[in-house]
UniProtKB/TrEMBL annotation:
Keyword Secreted among record annotations: no
Transferase recorded as keyword: yes
Name the record gives this protein: Acetylornithine aminotransferase
Organism this protein belongs to: Flagellimonas meridianipacifica
Cofactor: pyridoxal 5'-phosphate
MF terms (GO), sorted A to Z: identical protein binding; pyridoxal phosphate binding; transaminase activity
Keywords: Aminotransferase, Pyridoxal phosphate, Transferase
Listed SUPFAM superfamilies: PLP-dependent transferases (SSF53383)
Family, as annotated: Belongs to the class-III pyridoxal-phosphate-dependent aminotransferase family.
Superkingdom: Bacteria
PROSITE patterns for the chain: AA_TRANSFER_CLASS_3
Amino acid sequence: MELFDVYPLYDVAPVSAKGIEVKDNHGTTYLDFYGGHAVISIGHSHPHYVNRIKSQLEKIAFYSNSVQNPLQQELVELLGRLSGCEHYNLFLCNSGAEANENALKLASFHTGKSKVISFSNGFHGRTSAAVATTDNPAINAPINKQQQVTFLPLNDFDAFEKAIQSDTYCAVILEAIQGVGGLDEPTTEFYQFIAKKCKENGVVLIADEVQSGFGRSGAFFAFQHHGIQPDIISIAKGMGNGFPVGGILIHESIKASYGLLGTTFGGNHLACVATLAVLEVLEQENLIENARTLGVYFKQEAAKIPHVKKIKGRGLMLGLEFDFEVADLRKRLIHNQHFFTGGSKNKKLLRILPALNISKDHIDQFFEALNKELS
Ligand SMILES: Cc1ncc(COP(=O)(O)O)c(C=O)c1O
């Protein structure tokens, strides 16, 4: 048997990792400025995270959602308090795509409608409705194309107003900072306009915070920079710091009933302690503030580089746009300088998504390495 060959791979095989450092099978140490697609939020193998999971594993790792799991209750309380989203209820699942799939399904149940508004360059996952709302025809199979999705340009007030009046939409889904799409953002005015129009037209507003949530943008959720209140918030990635866990926060105005949503693995004991450990470290180590402060520092340092044409993003969800395609630069950063960075749909954009507990010194090391490759 061989692996189903769907990923182009860099020739690096990490075998251990600690904090922001990743070591490969030859003993070479890399600095991780990508966090494996924005997943590593509190650093690799954080001792509190390791201990929480280890000790839970020795007690009970899994039981299905047919019995009480007090860890879920503990998680609801801490997540509600730290995110400021106390007026939401939590449904747990296993990944970002699954979170959006459940968000879209719930919006459709709630409104009795089926069409969705999404935005150019939006990315929401690779499953049925989630991939249909993703602006990339190449990853949509004929079965996904049955979904009815209208793609609109970001920040186009007229196009949005015209579309939403048709009274056929169950949901609007958007990222407050586009990840895979290349770090573009709705303006505050546009996001507030969307929220207002959704409310007026009875359309469910889904904030996809799979990548931008859990402190990455310098606020718990990136939509919080815009003072709006979504109906559903989807979460994953940094939530589990590598443990596969996702979820949706559902505003209390949307009522639950038995059978509406369901999952076998979602909310299992290990997933709960992984998420609790992430939240505890975010709070104890002030990591959201660190993301905010170091994001500003990173941008200041990036502005000194003449090759950088645009600096995008917030907190530690950042992008550097060059006037050339960055695929080769990324390879050189890995192989010559031992730094992991990310790419995006915008081929000229280098994506920067380190753990939220990096230091100024790590950022200085990154710019030293980048300057070497640019000179
Ligand atoms: C904004 C956003 N939504 C959803 C997803 C899908 O998440 P997953 O790969 O966990 O299914 C991603 C993944 O990159 C994402 O960036």
